[in-house]
Amino acid sequence: xxxxxGIAVVGDWESVMGFRALGLETCPVSTAEQAREEIRRLAxxxxxxxxxxxxxxxxxxxxxxxxxDELRPAIILIPGREGSLxxxxxxxxxxxERAVGADIL
Length: 105
What we know:
Layout lengths: L5 E6 L1 H4 L8 E4 L3 H13 L2 E7 H4 L3 H7 L6 E5 L8 H14 L5
Parallel strand pairs: 1-2, 1-3, 3-4
């Protein structure tokens, strides 16, 4: 029997609550430290993908570095209520460069 993994969204209340309607686990937080705790909790559980707002991610480069090469959970950055900060795009571009050895974007 195949394992079942979850998907969660970590960020400020306004940014994450819309994802609840899609059936994702929502983790509203107000500080980077709370986000760190949620990510640790989710990583120890059955969460395969964690969407994290860019606003929080910019305060947590150590967490992104910790999980960047892990199979599970994948941490995907999303814009928050403030809009995109470009951090998510930059992370994807660096991951592609590591994977193929060149900037193809």
